[in-house]
Amino acid sequence: MNVAFAAGGTGGHINPALAIADKLKEVFPDTNILFIGSPDGLEAKLVKKAGYDFASVKMAGIQRKLTPHNIKLNIQAVHYYLSAGKRIKKIFDDFSPDLVIGTGGYVTGTVLKTAIKCGIKTALHESNSLPGVSVKMLAPKADLVMLGTEDAKKHLGECKKCVVTGNPLRNNIPIEEKSAARKRLGLPDCLTILSAGGSQGASRLNEAVVQLLAYEQKKGNINHIHGYGKHGRDTFMQSLADNGVDAGNPHFIIKEYIDNMYTCMCASDLIITRAGAMTLTEITAIGRASVLIPYPYAAENHQYYNALTLQNANAGRIIDDKELSGSVLIDTVNRLADDPELLRLMSENAAKLSKRDAAGKILREITELMGIK
């Protein structure tokens, strides 16, 4: 079987595609896999690193905010779009895919539209609670639509076949007991908070966390692990010093980049973070309460809808980015930290949202679609 993937733009689109590809190769080693994406996008880097073949198509997204510079970019994007169909058709002629799977990003729309015109079977996977433009547009025509959450169904109209599979992770999370994870990190066995704004960092989150750390230092007996990211490299440690926070406090682990994230997540009682789909997939897989600050500039504000899925299930609390401050974060964390029973309940509710073996469920849907036994 030959399977082509269309995914691009962000890790939230690319990593689910890689996870599906990994599962296909694990169960059906003779499957030929090809990824299609922009040569300048993150997909080119991640796909090649994963060892899969990659075919490039010049594509670009439409800029919603109209400025003179963005208008030029949009003209270029339209030019790419008009010429992409011919390039994609050539890729299909050379690769002869039996199935084309799209997982989001602007490349997905054009590739799957071409596949549908060519009579090739198509499948979509949407990791977010608010489906992207490409998925909304293609859902009525695709042969199979797989969703990361139940909430995503609410935003899709006509759909030949919609099924909630969950979001697949490339690697199984090595879940361990909190106390064991804390011991491995060299932390005392007490209330533990993890916060991070991603590898780049989040300036507003960093500013609020400095105030939270200062508060926790005075209160005592609270562990806190924080990743301040690239954007905090030149400012975060100085800000700690300016606020009287001892970075060497035995209760604190403060790093630019957390390279043992799963251990830190397992050690935590509460996680403070953005609301990307795959991050929330990991949080629910481990089963942890969360305070979520959706990235306000995500396409169609989809991170807010991701966070809302957890908040509505009493598994998380949302703080809008524009409302985030040290005092707001301290108040939110305090109310949760002072109620161990609520933290426990929220963690249990998070675990209930987890879709176990999402990759396996996706594989079963694909094999059924393709008539493979």
From TrEMBL:
GO biological process terms, semicolon-separated: carbohydrate metabolic process; cell division; cell wall organization; peptidoglycan biosynthetic process; regulation of cell shape
InterPro entries named in the record: GlcNAc_MurG (IPR006009), Glyco_trans_28_C (IPR007235), GlycoTrans_28_N (IPR004276)
GO molecular function: UDP-N-acetyl-D-glucosamine:N-acetylmuramoyl-L-alanyl-D-glutamyl-meso-2,6-diaminopimelyl-D-alanyl-D-alanine-diphosphoundecaprenol 4-beta-N-acetylglucosaminlytransferase activity; undecaprenyldiphospho-muramoylpentapeptide beta-N-acetylglucosaminyltransferase activity
Residues annotated as domain Glycosyl transferase family 28 C-terminal: 192-359
Membrane topology qualifier: Peripheral membrane protein
Domain of life of the native organism: Bacteria
Keyword list, A-Z: Cell cycle, Cell division, Cell membrane, Cell shape, Cell wall biogenesis/degradation, Glycosyltransferase, Membrane, Peptidoglycan synthesis, Transferase
Pfam families cross-referenced by the UniProt entry: Glyco_tran_28_C, Glyco_transf_28
Record localization: Cell membrane
Catalytic activity, as annotated: di-trans,octa-cis-undecaprenyl diphospho-N-acetyl-alpha-D-muramoyl-L-alanyl-D-glutamyl-meso-2,6-diaminopimeloyl-D-alanyl-D-alanine + UDP-N-acetyl-alpha-D-glucosamine = di-trans,octa-cis-undecaprenyl diphospho-[N-acetyl-alpha-D-glucosaminyl-(1->4)]-N-acetyl-alpha-D-muramoyl-L-alanyl-D-glutamyl-meso-2,6-diaminopimeloyl-D-alanyl-D-alanine + UDP + H(+)
GO cellular component: plasma membrane
Its job: Cell wall formation. Catalyzes the transfer of a GlcNAc subunit on undecaprenyl-pyrophosphoryl-MurNAc-pentapeptide (lipid intermediate I) to form undecaprenyl-pyrophosphoryl-MurNAc-(pentapeptide)GlcNAc (lipid intermediate II).
UniProt cross-references to NCBIfam families, sorted A to Z: murG (TIGR01133)
Entry protein name: UDP-N-acetylglucosamine--N-acetylmuramyl-(pentapeptide) pyrophosphoryl-undecaprenol N-acetylglucosamine transferase
Organism from which the protein derives: [Eubacterium] siraeum DSM 15702
Phylogenetic classification of the source organism: Bacteria, Bacillati, Bacillota, Clostridia, Eubacteriales
